[in-house]
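Deviations from the work plan: none for this task. Representative record:
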Amino acid sequence: MPELRHDPIQKRWVIIATERARRPSDFRIERDTGGDGKCPFCYGNEGMTPPEIRVFRDGSAANAPGWKVRVVPNKFPALRIEGDLDRAAAGQYDRMNGIGAHEVIIETPHHDKDLPDLSLDEIALVLSMYRDRIMDLRNDPRFRYVLVFRNRGSAAGASLAHPHSQLIATPVTPRTVAIELESAREHYTAKERCIFCDIIAQELATHSRVVAADADFVSWCPYASRFPFEVTLAPRRHEHDFGVLDDQALARLARHLREVLLRIKRSLDDPPYNYMLHTAPAYHLKPRRPGYWSTIELDWHWHLEILPRLTKMAGFEWGTGFYINPTPPEDAARFLREVTV
Amino acid sequence: MPELRHDPIQKRWVIIATERARRPSDFRIERDTGGDGKCPFCYGNEGMTPPEIRVFRDGSAANAPGWKVRVVPNKFPALRIEGDLDRAAAGQYDRMNGIGAHEVIIETPHHDKDLPDLSLDEIALVLSMYRDRIMDLRNDPRFRYVLVFRNRGSAAGASLAHPHSQLIATPVTPRTVAIELESAREHYTAKERCIFCDIIAQELATHSRVVAADADFVSWCPYASRFPFEVTLAPRRHEHDFGVLDDQALARLARHLREVLLRIKRSLDDPPYNYMLHTAPAYHLKPRRPGYWSTIELDWHWHLEILPRLTKMAGFEWGTGFYINPTPPEDAARFLREVTV
């Protein structure tokens, strides 16, 4: 059973994946090899993954070719779906069982196409699978947050080349999300305005950091970008929850996301990247405690963070939490705007 | 002039290094090449670096061969030493000039020896250079924190193979340090005990995570290690400030640090790694505000964090601030203890 452990000084949870305990020699192998043989995400190899959790397909049999988007449990899950949390002290430390969900969203049967190479309909199907899985897992009272993320390229942590996203449901609110939630709530408490709406308004007004904008969505390089060519995508109008998007909104989002990913791909010669979807946490869907009034619908604004992985984390970043970004976001946005897509 | 920019949602500062603005094509080059010609840190190439700030040498001329440890400004500094902070608003954002120090500590003239391959006397000289530079830079009222760190191996962000450490003095307390300071103060306020002393006592008592211990120092794999084979080193007895260590203490630290680094090197086949020294911040040396009583001497405990870089950061880590560690720290500590040094 994997274990969640709490660091009392950094106030941070860590997943100790006790079931695949690694010996020093395992890391030597990891550094020396890279390739793999048969792709478990291609048509005909469905038996190489655990059985599908949810799938979009036109009539073909389960766990057989013919699917369009396919969701399976991660074969090497960081967290386990079965069991109770068993929160406990360990001396002065804190632990709980590593309960959660860890799923793989196989985006297309096409091994060699990246997400932005798919048709708009195909991309919209992937996005609607994100929505469906988020909404389903939120019903599990053990989970506080559902994160959808995508690793593209081995430098970004992808162990398989076939296009896929992942999803992790966690039994605690992750620290990065908690800091964002807290900032948004503080801002709303002081001003009765959404901090993301304020930022979007300023970005659209100054325009120097905008990468793409249409009637529904805007993407920009954040003022304090950690990484070169970092991009944040958000709905222009206030919307706290990715889960409420209807199919028409997802079709419009597919068009916007494809444009942004193509701009990054063409500007930077198909770079490795991560993206992470920060939607509302699960807890607001549960009955509120008496006397506790949540403003999450008013203070939170869902967004997607896209991080091209062009620089390396080193001792300075680990020791400080600061980042050194060699490309001003205004320059990055100009390059991304000017490339032809 | 580099610029410090504040992210209002993540409450994090970022250094935008405006002077070496990078175009997309620069990153393509970075991914394709790696090597370099003449090493600027070797004897005879002293002219390739800016003039030395401080040096240990026996009588030879400045900026010429014959030195033992040599400190020079970073040729491509993330922060500039000259100027005023000029704190200002930028719309709803916050910025200040990128003022600070960024120095390189060239540890030895031997290009091919890593730090633990040096003699104990040589390692102690490097440590005393850390102490001297920290104490000197703390006198500059513009700086809040001085971080010494070391990147070893290109996967850990080292751009040069010649053994060296770096030092950055920042005009704001870095977020990672601020969280640790806050945790330490909260613990002390509640219990009148140092949180690090409590942790060290528990680690020595359970012993399963201890890597090395002698009369003065202890190194252990933290209970909630983020990374496989992560190690924290600290003095056994309460000591808030690395800057107060005398030469005898530094000689003992050299022996302990060499042992720990050799255990990591031999267990993991000379892995890339970072280490970061978290000593007391600079502000406690300044006159205290009326009515403000600092407990930093009582609540803080200096320590060195050593991070072998065996796994990659991916979307999950970026999106949550959580980490997935495939090697339980108890297993890592056992491997590190059992290797012969």
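The two ends of chain A are 47 Å apart (CA to CA).
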